[in-house]
Every structure is written in structure tokens, then in C-alpha cells.
Design a protein that fits this description.
The structure is a single chain. Strands 3-2-4-1-5-6 form a six-stranded mixed beta sheet. Helix content is about 40%, strand content about 15%. Helix 4 links the parallel strand 2 (about 60-65) and strand 3. The chain has nine helices and six strands; from the N terminus they run βαααβαβαααβααββ. It folds into two domains: about 1-100 and about 140-220, Rossmann fold (3-Layer(aba) Sandwich), CATH 3.40.50; about 110-140, no CATH class. The protein has helices at about 10-15, 20-25, 30-50, 70-80, 110-115, 115-130, 145-160, 175-185, 190-195, and strands at about 1-5, 60-65, 85-90, 165-170, 205-210, 215-220. The protein is an alpha/beta fold and about 250 residues long. About 35% of the residues are buried.
Length: about 250
């Protein structure tokens, strides 16, 4: 069995957090740079499969999160993959991004504390007493909650895996893709806490068999912006939208 875990390409939210406030987390689009990253990721998967013996993999089963940036990334992958290797394409809400509750769209701790002082203090105590993995943001999900729903998703994947040449592509988010790797490879919580989210459009490959075990590698690390490229391809892919400046106090 083979799993390609692909994080979505660069989104407007990755370069300007104001995008989460303006569009809502579920509706933040890719940048044109992010679309190019996802196209490149699709090409990497196509090249990897091309190098395998033809009998060593079945048609790809592609799963993706319903958020706009992952749907756009999935579409870019499909542009780069030969139609002959693509099988079922399915959306699953269990792959959505972690729900940060009241802290959605607010990633600065000082701002969280200013806007929701009581809730922030309670959350901070939970993080201190129970650990970051288990502490839920107010009205949101902990990382443990994400890992639990991802485990449910993997039950569907494994049910569909009838033989060792089953090949799956999962287009998700940083936390959810890490949760897939954690659950599939039976990693401990300590591993999750020590690991970082993959970069935009990075590919983690999990490969092996039930009898011999599975291993993971970072198959592809997408190109980041280099000095002098900060202003390139920053507009939204596939839509004429701009970021509204944050009101000043």
C-alpha cells in the first residue's frame, strides 16, 4: 500500500492572516504561487509512479478536504497526473482543518488574550496542565480531536484497500496530514508534539505492507519564495479578490 500525503499549496492566508477574517477559513483560496506548487507536486507523483513497474500500483484513489484551498490543490494535481492513473476522487469532511473555535482567524496569542481574556487564561491552563496535544481552544478542537476523526477516516481507507498495490493520495492540511501519519504509523503523542507541519505542497510518502510494516519519507519539498520573489504570484488563483486592509485602531 502507498499513501501520498499532500498539503495544500500556498494560500492567501499563508501570506496574510487577514484573509482568514475576510473569507473565512474554509473559503481562503490559493495564491497563484500555491497553484504552481500544487501542479509541481502532481508532477512529482506522476514521475514517481512512472518509475514503478506497471503492475506495482493500482489506479489512484484521491481524497481531499472540502476547504477551498485543498479543492484547488486537488484540481492542480489532476492537471499534472495522467488520466490513465486516476481512479476514484472523493471529498471527506473528516480531513478538514483543525477547528480553532473562538481563536479561528486569530493566531497571535496577545490578540487572543486581549479579545477573549477569560477563555485564553482557561486554555493556557489546559495547555500547561494537560499538554498542548489535548487542550481544546474555546469552542474548538484539540489536536487529539483531529487525530480521532482522522482515525475514523483511515478506517474507510483501509476498508477500501483490498490488496497491497492500493495507492492513495490525500490532499489535506498541516495538522490533519500529520494526524494521518501519526495514526497510520502508530506514532506516539510525543512524535506529534516534536514534529512540524509539512510545508505548503510538500509530499510525505508512506509505503509498505501490513506484513512487513510501513515507513514514511519526505518525498518532495515544495519551492518556497526566494529573496527577491516575495512579491511574485501573490494574488488569488482563479478569482479576482484582494485582501481588505485591517482597520487601524
Amino acid at each position: 500500500m502507498r499513501l501520498f500525503l499532500v498539503r495544500h499549496g500556498e494560500s492567501l492566508g499563508n501570506i496574510n492572516e487577514q484573509a482568514y477574517r475576510q473569507f473565512g477559513d474554509h473559503n481562503v483560496p490559493l495564491t497563484r504561487w500555491g497553484h504552481r506548487q500544487a501542479l509541481e507536486a502532481g508532477g512529482v507523483i506522476a514521475s514517481y509512479l512512472k518509475a514503478l513497474p506497471s503492475a506495482d500500483f493500482g489506479k489512484l484513489q484521491i481524497w481531499y478536504s472540502p476547504f477551498l484551498r485543498t479543492r484547488q490543490s486537488k484540481d492542480a494535481l489532476l492537471e499534472a497526473l495522467p488520466e490513465s492513473v486516476v481512479g476514484d476522487i472523493r471529498e471527506d469532511y473528516l480531513l478538514r482543518e483543525q477547528d480553532f473555535g473562538l481563536f479561528t482567524e486569530i493566531y497571535d496569542h496577545a490578540e487572543q488574550k486581549q479579545k477573549f481574556p477569560e477563555e485564553f487564561e482557561k486554555w493556557a491552563r489546559l495547555r500547561s496542565n494537560s499538554g498542548k496535544f489535548y487542550a481544546r481552544p474555546p469552542d474548538g478542537e484539540s489536536r487529539a480531536d483531529v487525530a480521532q476523526r482522522v482515525r475514523l477516516f483511515l478506517q474507510t481507507v483501509m476498508h477500501d484497500a483490498e490488496n497491497s498495490d492500493h495507492t492513495v493520495v490525500i490532499v489535506g492540511h498541516g495538522v490533519t496530514n500529520r494526524a494521518v501519519e501519526m495514526n497510520f504509523l502508530h506514532r506516539p503523542v510525543e512524535w506529534f508534539e516534536r514534529s512540524d507541519n509539512p510545508g505548503n505542497a510538500d509530499i510525505t510518502l508512506i509505503e509498505g505492507t501490513r506484513s512487513q510494516g510501513y515507513e514514511s519519507i519526505l518525498l518532495h519539498q515544495a519551492a518556497d519564495r526566494q529573496p527577491g520573489q516575495e512579491g511574485e504570484l501573490r494574488d488569488a488563483y482563479g478569482a479576482d479578490v484582494t485582501i481588505t486592509p485591517k482597520p487601524t485602531a
